[in-house]
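For anyone still unconvinced, we reproduce a single protein record, the chain in one-letter code, the fold tokenised, and leave readers to judge:
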Amino acid sequence: MKNYLGLLKYLAPYKRNIVLYFCFILFSVVFSVISLAMLFPFLEIIFDGNKLVTVKPTLDFTSASVISTLQYYLCQIIIAHSKIFALAMVCIFITFAIMLKNASVYMSYYVMSPMRNGMLMQLKNNLYDKILTLPIGYFSEQRKGDLMSRMTNDMSELEGAISNTMDGLIKEPVNILFFLGTLIFLSPELSLVLLVLLPVAGFIIGRISRSLKKQSNIAAEKSAEGLSIIEETLSGMRIIKSFTAEKFIQNKFVTINEDLFRVRNKMNFKRDLASPVSEVLGVIVLCIILWFGGQLILENRSFGLNGSAFIMYIAIFSQIINPSKSLSTAFYNMQRGTAALRRVEEVLQTTNTIIDKPDPIVLGEFQSTIEFRNVSFGYNDTIILNNINLKIEKGKTVALVGSSGAGKSTLADLVPRFHDVTNGELLIDGINIKDYSVESVRNQISVVTQDPILFNDTIANNILLGKQNATKEEIEEAATVSNAFNFIKQKEDGFETNIGDRGTKLSGGERQRLTIARAVLKNSPILILDEATSSLDTESERLVQDAINNMMKNRTSIVIAHRLSTIRHADEIIVLQKGTIVERGSHEQLLELGGFYRKLIEMQEVK
């Protein structure tokens, strides 16, 4: 409940709506009570001629006095006109009251809708913004399917819970409290019994729904596992089919789906139990009140509560049953919503370790050097890099080579602050990288990865990613430099061609040349090339390598590569092994050294 109430902070922009909502809810309850209050005492007068009240009673704001006063004025109408006229007036009055009640209910929904939808919109925006700001290391530790589930399934669950519970937890308590107030006004003695019975009924409902939150957590986890399997299946369809592993993958998915089926059934059984249980309990309470109150009246111990007032008391109490049912259902939905909210809050409350210092320095333009000074990096007691000392001069090309897991990519990832060093310092132009704003550092860097990262959009929009305000001429120039212009022009829609999910409508070489065009257009002084040609065939590699050579001119480059063609002409080659620099020098120097670099070549880990 405490976590769920945390959603109230999203209602801050809607204070006016909240006030109006409460006003309309109060109006709807008042008109509902008035319509009931007019019915029983007045019909008693109209259909029983012996009940005419001809002496004006003293109004002392007790229930009997108020009812007698209303009956007196109705009798005046009957005396002045007729019973049929009085009946017509009562019908018109009740109809008008019901119309006003329903108009108030509609207006309460009208002002509540922007609150509910605005709360969900802001929560979704905050979740997406948080994911965009989290460091790269967070995503390597989380399953993609689980994050997708939190953004889709959990948000949908929360959306349904908020839609149901906002009305149930605000409107229904107001209804119940107002009706209870009216009942206490009609008969304080009889209402004492009611105030004892209602908490007992609420306790029973609470006990039934207590386990719903735990089951909702299990359902969310199973749903996330299922979504992960779907994502992995779509991404790895070629491998699944080539290894004839369809049955194996299918069994994994079916098992998760069956577990989810069982958990959701249990949840639905308990949720659907809310309405009938609350109705049965309400009827039991009604029968107790009917027996107890009827006994008081029959024995003339009703303290001024006559038969018509007692019937009105029962009628008003019957109006509490439906709000009670809605309130219990809302409580069940809130338990489910709390479980979904907890999973969303886990992401929102994740600590972002890559943040700017107060008043950070803006790196306007890279001037001289990138320096690793006694840099170490690790996580979870695992050392990835150990005591790295390296200086990269502006305009130079430094290549990082080594066995898989040697720490090459991690070393390069420190430069755009995808991670922060554990020990030591990373300096740009002699200033610690942590003193710069993250955005200004990344504006100086372009990255081309081994796997081309493209989006389901047009060719032009994919190239524009790093410079959204680029002109058509600049886009075409970037495509020319990256050797992509010719194949783009051969497409039917040219630069407006949609390339499909992850660029699947293009070949591997075409995809990589688009990522290079994107980096060229950004025109950053620092380039990080992470094995940009290792997954290509010979012809595509030549075209991509030519594009890379064009892009690297007059830029500072950090190249991670296994293929000798990429690094042969590097100004310095850094050989990493188990997170430590074991050799460094030019290609010729390292060959003459006859050490680990030469061994890598002979083993064809570098070609």
